[in-house]
């Protein structure tokens, strides 16, 4: 664990212009530097580096962050790896904090498992060169069309038929049996009715993968953590594939096969292809589609989606062209949509899977096919539903509800509105009907969601007409502005306008720290945010406030969470730099000169916008058939909201 003091030393020492300058030709432009973005192709430089703020921002592709974010993204490493890179560059010694005995033991165990897995991978790969390995394992791989370069790239191998070959070789090399068992390389043979001993003897154990072609599974940094083994026997009583069990190293739901080889290509292409099996990934890579990974035969999980999201928000799923293939893909699609991914599907011919299709075509043909046949998931599903339900109104209604349910999981309101419009066009249904169904689905998700998700619920509203732009129904601009002011000026004090008491002629004023003012105001009205990142930053500010820690911009610009630091960069970045008019004896007031007004405007603007959206939603409910009692309650609620709206508008008029 890197101590906080060392992290601060690295941030304070590392000059972002020097670090970026190692990879980008930078030219000075005023107080900043300008160069060609290393993350996308561009002819005119739009990549800006600010040494004063310690951040970078590309106005072409939108990427931005601090010096650690740059190293993480450019070198495709994690936070600790980026810190060690910078420490080495600036000769800063990293002395990790002394850990508890339990932590040391756990770390030693993990290292031992990694070493054992590395030994096993080399053992399996070397066995491809033996007589048995060539006759069985290597001949199979060559039949699949895998070249020697591909076999070496993916470190493929073969486990001998002997059920103790790996175990005996590892024990002879000095490795402990308990680590072979923990890594899932060896299993213990226990007779029926007997308990598994804590430390089995070698004669009670056997190799898990004996007689199988081996596919090593790597983590993001390229270290072997698990294995998949395919049998070549025709005996149907034997499982075709055997995978490593869950271990301290390997959690199937967190791992994507091929991610260590695909991550750079995913970033470069700004897209990730998802397939089902090991051979699918290998054949796609061999066909020069290197931005391909696999969920290893399991449904897509939240952890896997977030791993892809680190490199791109764009996901393209390749699946077999039958209905069963679509159903298999759909199990993880809702998760991808919830995480804000842009999901596309590519249908392959019924007789093909990604492996066979890639081997039948040249890389150029494959690339053209994937580009021409990638269809947005929602549009694809809508077209499919239209065909499946033709002539059956009941089935059509049921499938449309399923479609709307999928759209309801999408976090961005703008994206949801575009999908509703497209579904309306393709299914020949009025947008108003789909919006009504969407509101029900979103309300159901809200009711079933845990409290931490409820905080991020977005308010739905039905547009007056199909031509109206629904994207206006959001508080996100006001939320971003409020978070920006809180993070940038939280520790500063400002003068605010108070409420005059009865008979008081002068309007009172008071001085208060900005963080205190904002947090107390929002908590008083139980205000939550639509934007997930705004909510996370605000929650962290509240925690810091309760611990009496300073809320400042540098803390969030240097945050270890890449999403939060990049978002903070976008809030901190100034698109325009004001000229120095003081040389002409002209005084220009800046935002800091009237902080109280800026803060009050940010708070009241958000509250006012929230009330407007509540009124719009309430009006839509009132337009529905209601009994007299419910109608009366809603009309009374609208009167209270109208009063609050007038009060907030009055306060806004006072500070603008």
Q: Biggest sheet, strands in spatial order?
A: 1-2-3-4-5
Give the distance, in angstroms, between the N- and C-terminal Cα atoms: 48 Å
What is the rounded Rg?
30 Å
Helical content class: 40-55%
- Average pLDDT, all residues: 81
Write down the overall geometry.
globular
Content-based structural category: alpha+beta
> Into which percentage range does the β-strand content fall?
5-15%
Per-chain topology:
Elements: H1 4-13, H2 16-21, E1 27-29, E2 32-35, E3 47-50, E4 55-58, E5 64-66, H3 67-75, H4 79-89, H5 101-126, H6 131-143, H7 148-153, E6 157-158, H8 165-172, H9 177-182, E7 186-188, E8 205-207, E9 212-218, E10 224-231, E11 241-243, H10 259-269, E12 272-275, H11 278-286, E13 292-294, H12 302-309, E14 314-319, H13 323-338, E15 342-347, H14 354-360, H15 363-373, E16 374-376, H16 377-388, H17 393-408, H18 413-427, H19 431-448, H20 451-454, H21 476-489, E17 493-497, E18 509-513, H22 514-524, H23 532-546, H24 553-557, H25 562-572, H26 595-622, H27 628-655
Parallel strand pairs: 12-13, 12-14, 14-15
Antiparallel strand pairs: 1-2, 2-3, 3-4, 4-5, 6-9, 7-8, 9-10, 10-11, 15-16, 17-18
Helix pairs in contact: 3-4, 11-14, 16-17, 16-18, 17-19, 21-23, 21-26, 22-26, 26-27
């Amino acid at each position: 664990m890197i101590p906080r003091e060392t992290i601060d030393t690295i941030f304070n020492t590392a000059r972002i212009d020097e670090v970026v300058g190692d990879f980008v030709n930078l030219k000075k432009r005023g107080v900043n530097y300008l160069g060609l973005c290393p993350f996308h192709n561009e002819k005119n430089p739009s990549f800006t580096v600010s040494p004063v703020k310690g951040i970078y921002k590309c106005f072409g592709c939108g990427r931005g962050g601090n010096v650690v974010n740059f190293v993480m993204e450019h070198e495709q490493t994690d936070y600790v790896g980026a810190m060690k890179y910078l420490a080495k560059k600036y000769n800063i010694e990293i002395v990790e904090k002394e850990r508890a005995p339990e932590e040391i033991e756990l770390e030693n165990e993990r290292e031992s498992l990694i070493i054992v897995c590395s030994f096993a991978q080399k053992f399996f790969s070397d066995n491809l060169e033996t007589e048995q390995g060539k006759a069985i394992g290597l001949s199979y791989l060559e039949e699949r069309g895998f070249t020697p370069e591909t076999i070496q790239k993916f470190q493929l191998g073969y486990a001998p038929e002997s059920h103790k070959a790996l175990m005996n070789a590892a024990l002879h090399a000095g490795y402990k049996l308990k680590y072979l068992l923990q890594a899932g390389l060896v299993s213990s043979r226990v007779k029926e009715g007997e308990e598994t001993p804590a430390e089995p003897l070698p004669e009670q154990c056997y190799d898990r993968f004996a007689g199988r072609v081996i596919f090593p599974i790597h983590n993001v940094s390229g270290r072997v953590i698990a294995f998949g083994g395919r049998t070549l026997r025709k005996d149907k009583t034997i499982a075709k594939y055997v995978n490593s069990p869950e271990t301290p190293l390997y959690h199937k739901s967190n791992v994507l096969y091929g991610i260590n080889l695909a991550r750079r290509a995913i970033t470069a292409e700004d897209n990730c292809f998802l397939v089902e099996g090991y051979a699918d990934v290998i054949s796609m890579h061999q066909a020069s589609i290197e931005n391909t990974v696999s969920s290893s035969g399991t449904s897509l999980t939240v952890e896997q989606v977030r791993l892809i999201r680190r490199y791109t928000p764009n996901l393209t799923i390749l699946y077999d062209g039958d209905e069963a293939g679509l159903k298999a893909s759909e199990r993880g699609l809702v998760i991808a949509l919830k995480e804000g991914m842009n999901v596309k599907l590519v249908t392959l011919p019924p007789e093909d899977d990604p492996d066979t299709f890639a081997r039948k075509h040249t890389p150029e043909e494959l690339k053209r096919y994937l580009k021409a046949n990638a269809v947005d998931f929602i549009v694809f599903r809508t077209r499919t539903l239209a065909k499946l339900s033709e002539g059956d109104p009941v089935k059509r209604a049921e499938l449309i509800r399923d479609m709307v349910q999928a759209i309801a999981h999408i976090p961005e309101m703008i994206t949801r509105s575009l999908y509703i419009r497209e579904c309306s066009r393709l299914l020949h249904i009025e947008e108003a009907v789909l919006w009504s169904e969407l509101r029900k689905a979103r309300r159901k998700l809200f009711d079933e969601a845990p409290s931490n998700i409820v905080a991020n619920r977005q308010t739905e509203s039905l547009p007056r007409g199909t031509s109206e732009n629904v994207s206006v129904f959001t508080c996100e601009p006001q939320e971003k502005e409020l978070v920006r002011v809180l993070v940038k000026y939280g520790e500063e004090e400002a003068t605010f306008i108070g409420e005059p008491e009865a008979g008081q002629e002068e309007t009172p004023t008071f001085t208060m720290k900005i963080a205190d003012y904002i947090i107390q105001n929002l908590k008083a009205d139980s205000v939550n945010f639509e934007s997930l990142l705004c909510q996370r930053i605000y929650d962290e500010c509240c925690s810091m406030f309760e611990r009496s820690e300073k809320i400042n911009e540098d803390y969030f610009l240097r945050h270890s969470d890449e999403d939060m630091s990049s978002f903070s960069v976008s809030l901190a970045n100034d698109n325009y730099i004001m000229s120095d008019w003081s040389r002409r004896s002209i005084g220009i007031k800046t935002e800091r000169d009237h902080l109280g007004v800026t803060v009050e405007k940010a708070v009241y603007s958000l509250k006012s916008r929230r009330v407007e959206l509540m009124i719009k939603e309430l009006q839509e409910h009132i337009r529905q058939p209601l009994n007299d009692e419910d109608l009366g309650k809603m009309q009374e609620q609208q009167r209270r909201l109208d009063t609050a709206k007038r009060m907030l508008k009055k306060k806004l008029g006072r500070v603008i």
